[in-house]
Amino acid sequence: MHEDTAARLLERAAGLGASFAEIRVEDAVTENITVTNGRVSALTTTRKRGAGIRVLYGGAMGFSATSDLSPQGLEKALLEAYHVAKAVGGGDRRVADAQPAGRLSLGGVKKHPSAAGWEEKLDIAMRAYRRAVELGGQVVTTRYGAYYAATEVYATGGFKASFEKLLVGVSASVVLRENGKTGNGYESVGGTGGLELLQGDMSPEAVAQKAFERAKLHLEASPPPAGEMAVITRPDLTGVFAHESFGHLTEADHVYTGASPLHGRLGEEIASENVTIVDAGWDERGGVRLLADDEGVATRRTVLVERGVLRGYLHSRESAAEMGMEPTGNGRAQDYAHDPIVRMRNTFFEAGDWSEDEIVEDTRHGLILDMPAGGQVQLDGTFTFNAMLGYLIENGERVKPVRDVVLAGNILEMLRYIDAVAGNVEIRTSPFGGCGKGGQHAYVGLGGPTLRAAKLLVGGRK
Amino acid sequence: MIDRSLLDWAVKRALELGADEAEVYASITRKREVSSEGRKLKAASLATIDAWVRVSTDKRVAIARASSLDREVLEKAVEEAVSAARVSERDEHWPGLPAPAKPLHGWIGYDEGVATLEPGYMVELAKQVMGEVDSLGADLMVASVEVGAYASEKAIVNSAGLDVSERATGMTAMLELKRGEGTGFSFDVSRSLLSDVQLARIVDEAARLTVDASKAEKLGETFTGPVLFDPVTVAPLLNMILSTAFNGELVVEKYSPLAGKLGQRVLGGLTLYDDGTLPGAMGTSLYDDEGVPRRRTVLAEDGVVKAFLHNTYTAARMNAESTGNASRRQKVGVSHSNLVVARGRDSWDTLASAAKLVARGFLLSVHTVNYVTGNFSVVASNPYILRGGEEVPVKPVTLAGNFYELAGRITPGRRPRSTYMAVVTPPLLVDGVTVSG
Predict the structure, then answer these.
(1) Alpha helices (H) along B105-195
(2) Which pLDDT score, from 0 to 100, does residue B330 have?
(3) Judged by CB atoms within 8 Å, which residues 403-432 of B form the interface with A?
(4) Which chain B residues contact residue A138 at CB under 8 A?
(5) Residues 291 to 310 of A: which have CB under 8 A from any B CB?
(6) Chain B within 8 Å of A455 (Cβ-Cβ)?
(7) A184/B371 Cα distance (integer angstroms)
(8) Domain of B314?
(9) Helix (H, G, I), strand (E, B), or coil: what is residue B150?
(10) What is the ipTM of this complex?
(11) Would you place residue A215 in the very low, low, confident or very high pLDDT band (cuts 50, 70, 90)?
(12) B192 touches chain A (CB under 8 A)
């Protein structure tokens, strides 16, 4: 759509002495309906339309963005990107060559949110609300959400790509209070597709039911004991572990600088042989479907750890050049107003040959945990991830529910302790959460099977 | 400059299309930032626009947002908001849009010197920070450095006659270092130019944390006892627990554990207030995001809940006045301006003499704290165990407890610090925290 203008801008950049330039035009819409205790507390549509421009001058990268898509507005942004790149005063930055993704579109979408009316979307949130209340939910918030975008990328060397993005979902949060105790539970689901996705296990009613059941269990649960013990993570929580505790350290912008503890360790055995971790633009078991990254590079399936051995890092065009590797389609930007940085897509542990029941039966003392509440990792490999709900296990039996727990450790120790992995891989996403890095948000998928770490630090109460 | 006649036109256009009321909010933020991956610097310069059209029709409310102030784009947003409001649910409690009111203070957090900073100057500052790290000779690796400056303008026009605008600036600097297995992080923020003294403090703080962390040993025990939190370390925890607990919307909807607790002593001896008029603080402005004047609101006095934070809607729901705390994120909600914990009498050393562990650096997973119950279970990045009065660095530890159960065992220190989350707090000694590592 903006091909001619982009071509002129790229010529202009070359004339200024830029060794690389990139024009990314995006038109993105976010829809949010929130129903709080039966009241529509938000009915919002947000449209972000503009261009992000990168210029590599004298070995330094400059970025600028504008919502003015006129030729004059775009040229002004290009000159600003050039101006700030020049201000850095030189460097040795490069971008790796990459194959453009070409023109890609999502097929098979029956009821795209842009073609559906507000009544139908409001009904999705209201159906979830009504179901949660029928079950006995006392304080209930439900949401419908959608995100869709059309992105075009033009860069030096005749690079052209255009692609769609799409994510829809529904969520419910339920609070119960009884005898001075409070329990809260939530569930959110989503995927790349039209509103037709929100049925069956992903229907508003099923989501409300799950949130209510979790709130009920949360009400009965108490804090777990603190200290080191065996921890079994169910698929949702395994996904947060894959993403927060490990995945971030494979992002090559941390690796090439030497900051990541995974720097220089390709080919080394860093985990038990039960561990295989993958980051993919799409997997048929679920998650968000990303056709290309925001540099216009087709997303490829990247094996990070294969049977315990570190096999890969995640790359943008910039980080790939730094390490002499190929881009993997992980250069992602929150929107047109942010520059692409290395981000994950769908990150998950692969299946093992245990069943969840076998793992529980095999555990003498430990926890089985679910309902993730996020996590974080720092550059020394210290990681945390949180679970809101689970059970204490004694002698292979779930004996009492536990709640609100942080799990912590050092990832390079921790991956060696994974001694049992089940086959029940689930990969999930939703338009309500996501990952934050460098001030940018990204929609991601997380997943894996139930697995056990023989020893993990549990932040409970004494 | 935002053309307020355009906003006024959009308000009138919404009324023409059948809205009973309309409000247009617009902000333009110009941000320049120099950041690094390792020592490799890059620069960005952005001007972003956030335009909100909020309309009500027969007490049915909807919002449409856009990233442009082009008349056509704005008109489309107006049409979208009006058509969405027609199908929204009627809200009997909707009180209407706020009427105009004069600001209650005169401090303008706008520094022309920050607004006009050239990126080249920020590059020099980033290089200065890296140079200072090198001069320490401590074998420290720069993981990242960041220097940024922003200038923003917001304007709000509504059909109740409100027509306000204001400007703001801010400057930030951040440094993350690594040495062996140790990491350290420090930052500072200011509404005006960051001084050399502030930049030197960032370097010293990050370096100290990093060098100590590289020598840290495992704690190797679990105990429940007194933990002394550095102001910067504890600020995000206070934000997650207290800012949400006093949020009028979460109180009205009964998510907050403080719902129904007005007049009750539930926070030990803590005195807290929200102060949107505090000169120099990050959350100070003339108006909130609905155009209601900022003010000072006592939230808790000696542990007794005195008031909640409100926007126009939540205030009406609780028969109160708006406290000037409207915010705009995903929706028009409520947030603190500057959340202030009143200072105590004890020095850091006095508090440390009663502590078993000191939490410096930052808290990992603080965003996962359960604000509905007050349960927290987080990880301290740079903890120190106190042995014979000496701070001995240990590897990261978990810290867990329930804020409300521990509130009566919190002792504030006497020297508050203003932090980037617009939380102003002294160090806090909290007894009864379970520590494990």
Answers:
(1) 112-115, 119-135
(2) 84
(3) none
(4) 254
(5) none
(6) no
(7) 10
(8) 216-437
(9) strand
(10) 0.92
(11) very high
(12) no
